[in-house]
Design brief:
Layout lengths: L8 E9 L5 H11 L3 E13 L2 E7 L2 H12 L6 E4 L5 H13 L5 E3 L14 H11 L5 E2 L3 H8 L6 H13 L4 E4 L8 E7 L5 E7 L9 H14 L4 H17 L26
Parallel strand pairs: 1-2, 1-4, 4-5, 5-6, 6-7
Antiparallel strand pairs: 2-3, 7-8, 8-9
Helix pairs in contact: 1-7, 2-3, 3-4, 5-6, 7-8
Bound molecules: adenosine-5'-triphosphate and 4-amino-5-hydroxymethyl-2-methylpyrimidine (HMH).
Pfam families: Phos_pyr_kin (PF08543)
Catalytic activity: 4-amino-2-methyl-5-(phosphooxymethyl)pyrimidine + ATP = 4-amino-2-methyl-5-(diphosphooxymethyl)pyrimidine + ADP; 4-amino-5-hydroxymethyl-2-methylpyrimidine + ATP = 4-amino-2-methyl-5-(phosphooxymethyl)pyrimidine + ADP + H(+)
Enzyme class: transferase
Length: about 280
């Protein structure tokens, strides 16, 4: 007879996207496709679509604490991630809960600004992430502007990315992935700096598309899923890159702006054939 909670379970702690392409919605779709059962703590609710973020509100702290308690009381979470955390107060609530409960390794996606330009984390919130949350993370996954904010430096080339990654690692993150989607090069270069100080680059051709809403949520959720399934960090990151690449390459036509990714593509063989 199978044991209760033997199935790989994950947790995303983030904001919702009413448009379905980013945030908790992208996280749960990705986790499902990657073979994990996903649970969620909703920190904030956004009114959002592919054209931008029209409004958002962070939830009452009591309700957030209750969600953590509900999940802890029933499931065995093997890996978790954070996404949009809104402000310093909410970052602190998440920090307290992550110290209280064991949800496995944390992948910290330090979401700051949405593709359309909306600020999803206050300046104070950024400081609280730097001071309190980074040190709890097994992996942090900033994009280039987020890495610049965290490391307090300008990133113009690959050398700058490596310097920033080292600074972020010194803040207490065990492993660092700086995503290269925001660079201007024809090649996209993601940098991985591992716990043992070794590093490697994940290179891919830039896909000429505006349908890149939720790329960061998708790669971090694929990594969390693979960690929950038992992969080591390097294998989980390589899998995440393949997963997001397939999801970007095989565009689906949804919405008028920065459209969502194709979360089915990887399992449909989307890295080999256009589907
Ligand atoms: N146009 C593109 N072509 C190929 N790969 C891309 C493209 N844009 C992003 N990526 C890849 O997607 C992943 C996420 O990178 P990106 O820098 O876009 O994250 P992000 O800004 O956090 O995303 P978001 O804020 O939309 O969630 C990385 O692996 C990056 O290389
Ligand atoms: C709720 C939410 N989380 C993250 C992002 C960034 O992709 C977004 N646009 N919205």
């Amino acid at each position: 007879m199978s044991e209760i909670n033997s199935f790989p379970q994950t947790l995303t702690i983030a904001g919702t996207d009413s448009g379905g392409g980013a945030g908790i919605m992208a996280d749960m779709k990705t986790m499902q496709e990657c073979g994990a059962f996903s649970t969620a703590v909703i920190v904030a609710v956004t009114a959002q679509n592919t054209l931008g973020v029209q409004d958002f509100q962070a939830l009452d702290p009591k309700l957030i604490n209750e969600q953590f308690s509900s999940i802890n009381g029933d499931f065995k979470i093997r890996a978790c991630k954070t996404g949009m955390l809104a402000d310093a107060e909410h970052v602190s609530i998440v920090v307290d809960n992550l110290k209280k409960y064991d949800f496995g390794p944390l992948v910290l996606d330090p979401v700051m600004i949405a593709k359309g330009g909306a600020q999803l984390l206050s300046d104070e919130g950024i400081n609280t992430i730097k001071n309190d949350l980074v040190k709890l993370s097994e992996l942090i996954t900033p994009n280039i502007p987020e890495a610049e904010r965290l490391a307090d430096c300008e990133i113009k080339n690959k050398d700058d990315m490596l310097l920033a990654a080292k600074k972020i690692k010194e803040m207490g993150a065990k492993n660092v992935l700086i995503k290269g989607g925001h660079s201007e090069s024809l090649e996209v270069n993601d940098l991985v700096l591992l716990d043992d100080e070794s590093h490697f680059w994940m290179k891919s051709k830039r896909v000429d598309t505006i349908r890149t809403h939720g790329t960061g949520d998708t790669i971090s959720s694929a990594i969390v899923s693979r960690l929950a399934l038992g992969d080591d960090m390097k294998s989980a990151i390589l899998y995440g890159k393949d997963f997001v690449e397939a999801a970007i390459k095989n565009t689906i036509q949804v919405g008028h702006g920065h459209g969502p990714l194709n979360h089915w593509a990887y399992n449909a063989g989307g890295n080999n054939n256009e589907i």
